[in-house]
Amino acid sequence: MDPKSDGIPSVGCLLFLAADQLVAHRPNMVPFYMTRVPCKRVWVHSVHLSAMVLTATFLSLQESGHLSFRIHEGPSTNFPGGVITSLTLYTEVLDSAVRPGLPGELLSAAIESSDGRVGTAKGSAGLWGTDEAYVLGLSVAYPYVKYAVRRELAEVGASTKSWGVFRPDCARIALLEAVCADAVRWWKQQQTAAPRLCALLLAICRTASAGPRGGGGL
């Protein structure tokens, strides 16, 4: 899914706008680890939101033919409850054409990476990220994703910044409702079509989004 070519924000930005449909949320603000969805009285978990947006952006770069991914399975460790396996994700740049917005930032990081290593995660029944605060050597600790989304919304005239305060244009954002719905469907399809890659990316991006101390940011 590559809506940016039509003057619409990237799929990650659209999912940020529709986060209340995909990320655990609550109607009231809490002081830690929560971010408000633009133009909605809904707050979602910052780290989970960031991981979803980053993962979707990586998958969109694969779909558009800019990146490919390879999973390397490391040694497994047996323990009484099962087996823990280490999985490392690598990416290869197939098309280095300049991209706008968050996709461009992640693509640039892949181009500049010395080995294309996205990150590592391990787990048994599920996956959890290892203690790494970077993706492709890029620090994506929250609020990295929030600021990237704000820049994209500004590029399409859906937000303004005055006296350092971000103000979303809710009328303009309302016009993106249909493409946001398309993005939500696309994201669910990706999770069904490539569950292993999605789970690994989410685990890696979740840890990196939390930052070096495991914090979520606001």
Description:
This protein is an alpha+beta fold. The protein contains seven helices and eleven strands. It has one domain. Helix content is 40%, strand content 25%. A four-stranded antiparallel sheet has the order 4-5-6-7. A three-stranded antiparallel sheet has the order 1-3-2. A hairpin with a 6-residue loop joins β2 (34-36) and β3 (43-45). The two termini are 28 Å apart.
Name a few traits of the molecule:
218 residues; alpha+beta; four-stranded antiparallel β-sheet; three-stranded antiparallel β-sheet; 7 helices; 11 strands; disordered C terminus
Short structural summary:
By secondary structure, this protein is of the alpha+beta class. The chain has helices spanning 11-17, 46-63, 101-112, 144-155, 170-174, 177-193, 195-210; strands at 25-26, 34-36, 43-45, 67-79, 82-93, 117-123, 128-129, 134-135, 138-139, 159-162, 165-168. It has one domain (3-210).
Describe the protein's topology.
Blueprint: H1 11-17, E1 25-26, E2 34-36, E3 43-45, H2 46-63, E4 67-79, E5 82-93, H3 101-112, E6 117-123, E7 128-129, E8 134-135, E9 138-139, H4 144-155, E10 159-162, E11 165-168, H5 170-174, H6 177-193, H7 195-210
Strand content range: 15-25%
Largest sheet: 4 strands, antiparallel
User: What is the 3D shape?
Assistant: globular
Secondary-structure element series? HEEEHEEHEEEEHEEHHH
Radius of gyration: 17 Å
CA-CA gap between termini: 28 Å
What's the β-strand tally?
11
How many distinct helices?
7
Q: Return residue spans where pLDDT drops below 50 for at least 5 consecutive residues.
A: 214-218
Name the helicity range.
25-40%
As laid out across the biggest beta sheet, the strand order is 4-5-6-7
Mean pLDDT rating: 86
